[in-house]
Specification:
Bound molecules: zinc ion
Largest sheet: 4 strands, mixed
Distance between the termini: 111 Å
CATH architecture of the largest domain: Ribbon
Order of helices and strands: HHHHHHEHEEEEEEEEEEHEEEEH
Shape: elongated
Low-confidence stretches: 72-132
Length: 380
């Protein structure tokens, strides 16, 4: 069915580009689908279609010559595009992509529409209630904590003083001075948001913003709590117990759920993250869940063998040094290392034999070594 685009826009065949543009704006304003719950969607599409053709000098020429059959299969008609798609396209940065409007490149003048779309998208479609009025989780906090080597191995509980936002104890979070009433917010009539109606070239838009009076709660205290000034939460110096689990390593982070700032409007509290620094230890060195020590062994012990006492973090342990132990030999004391976090197993204690060569010898000792050398037994 041939369409009269001039008629759609309500203009004369001799209309100038300027007049076409004005007519489009006027028609689009009247038939904007958002204004009539989408009832005018078809009409709006038609207007747009007309403008795509007539607003483009070249297409208009073709249309004048061949009618709308020149554009059949390219227009809006029958593409199944609805207003939501239209908006989505606009949001995704225009209509230049193939297939957006049935494969046709559509140039809507968005110079004037930008702020409308901006507002609409900002509120997820303009008339939906903003999520910001609901409960909001409190912010998480991060702290750094230094622990000793032993504290890291065995775990530790520490009390720390932390300044954080907690639910106001005086008003129990409702923001009202105890004993006073909480009323429906007069500014937003309990809605928590203020809806503003704005007329634009595409129609009348409603934009919702959070009520500045009640901050979206829809109610406000007749007399704000004197402790939190009606906020329902207040900053407090708080002593809290920190639990560092056994086996924590330098640079690891402990998350304590719910120990961050209190949530807003009944939202969950944030978490507390503790970044752990483990101070080095003079005696023990740590490698993951293993503990390493270097133990001095005399030449005689290395040659003849012996049993030595090794201090581990779990107490002293006897270690058998076999005869003929070579320098830097490693011995493993199973299960004498660091506990694995969240497991009952433990790492090992690794002993590295440090065979001490005597620097000063008594006359007798020197003689004995010389005798050994002259034995020519082959072990030198
Ligand atoms: Zn309070
Ligand atoms: Zn309000």
């Amino acid at each position: 069915m041939p369409k009269d685009y001039y008629k759609v826009l309500g203009i004369d065949k001799s209309a100038s580009q300027d007049e076409i543009k004005k007519a489009f704006r006027k028609q689009a304003h009247v038939h904007h689908p958002d204004k009539n719950n989408g009832e005018d969607e078809t009409k709006f599409k038609e207007i747009n279609e007309a403008y795509q053709i007539l607003g483009d000098e070249k297409k208009r020429e073709q249309y004048d010559q061949f009618g709308d059959s020149a554009f059949s299969g390219q227009g809006f008609g029958g593409t199944g595009m609805n207003w939501q798609d239209f908006v989505r396209q606009a949001q995704q940065g225009g209509f230049s992509s193939q297939g957006g409007f049935g494969g046709q490149r559509v140039n809507v003048d968005f110079g004037d529409l930008g702020d409308i779309f901006g507002e609409m998208f900002g509120f997820g479609g303009g008339r939906r209630r903003s999520r910001q009025t609901g409960p909001q989780q409190g912010e998480s906090m991060e702290i750094e904590m230094s622990v000793s080597f032993e504290e890291a191995v065995f775990g530790v509980e520490k009390m720390i003083r932390l300044s954080r936002v907690v639910k106001c104890e005086k008003c129990n979070g409702n923001g009202a001075e105890p004993g006073t009433k909480i009323s429906k917010c007069a500014r937003c009539n309990g809605q928590g948001q203020i809806v503003q109606t704005r007329s634009t070239m595409l129609g009348t838009f409603q934009t919702a913003s959070i009520c500045p009076e009640c901050h979206g709660q829809g109610k406000s205290a007749d007399k704000p709590c004197s402790n939190c000034h009606g906020q329902g939460r207040a900053e407090k110096q708080d002593d809290i117990k920190i639990k560092i689990p056994a086996g924590i390593d330098n640079g690891q982070t402990v998350r304590m759920q719910g120990l961050g700032n209190a949530g807003e409007r009944g939202g969950l509290s944030g978490d507390l993250y503790i970044h752990v620094r483990v101070r080095p230890n003079k005696r023990f060195e740590r490698n993951g869940s293993d503990i390493i020590t270097i133990e001095p062994i005399s030449v005689a012990q290395a040659v003849l063998g012996d049993t030595i006492k090794v201090e581990t973090v779990h107490g002293a342990v006897n270690l058998k040094i076999p005869a003929g132990t070579q320098p830097s030999t490693k011995f493993k004391l199973r299960g004498k290392g660091v506990p694995h976090v969240q497991s009952s197993s433990k790492g090992d204690h690794i002993v590295i034999a440090d065979i001490k060569i005597p620097k000063k010898l008594s006359r007798k000792e020197k003689k004995l070594f010389e005798e050994l050398r002259d034995e020519k037994s082959g072990w030198f």
